[in-house]
Amino acid sequence: MTDIARPAAGDAAPDFSLPGYDGEPVSLSSLRGRGVILYFYPKDNTAGCTLEAQGFRDRLADFEALGYTVLGVSRDSVKSHCGFRDRQSLNFTLLSDKEETVCRLYGVMKEKMMYGKKCFGIERSTFVIDAEGKVKLALRGVKAKTHVEELYAELAGTA
Question: How far apart are the first and last CA of the chain?
């Protein structure tokens, strides 16, 4: 499996529609006029993903003050997202991409080694999309522990 799409800064952000917590679709195009931080993470309720989600939760008001909506995407189910949201008191929307459609649009599927076996999974990545729907930043292979603070510092310095 190879990913063809790999949006970069300056590209039009691929539009999509994915189910949110209530199963209702959320589309990128419906958020035009506001910036979007679209972050992809491997799995609900794992150490790194929890740390990253908590970082976005704790910085949400700051990102909103800069004009951004935060959306998290993984291959987990809506039910799993609801449990993750409730356990971590998440205050932003998580989207379910069970079919990996949006993961492939953004080129975040990557071959990984897990317990000595090759598998494909989500490479922790974030796309900052401006109000007109263009990719402002495409950050791949980010670190869960430091990513949110680094992203905030970068956006606050360029806002």
Answer: 37
Number of structural domains (the chain) is 1
Q: Over the Cα atoms of the chain, what is R_g?
A: 15
Q: In the annotation, is 119 catalytic?
A: no
In a domain, 73, yes or no: yes
Instruction: Determine the structural domain holding residue 37 and report its residue range.
Output: 17-158
3-state DSSP assignment of residue 59? helix
What's the CATH number where 100 sits? 3.40.30.10
**pLDDT single digits (tens) 112-157:** 776 787 878 899 999 999 999 999 999 999 999 999 999 999 999 9
Predicted confidence at residue 43, as pLDDT, reads: 95
**DSSP β-ladder status, 68-74 and 93-96:** parallel
Residue in this structure with the two tokens 């956006």, named with its chain if needed: 155
Residue among 49, 82, 103, 119 flagged as catalytic: 49
Q: Are 146 and 153 in contact (CB under 8 A)?
A: no
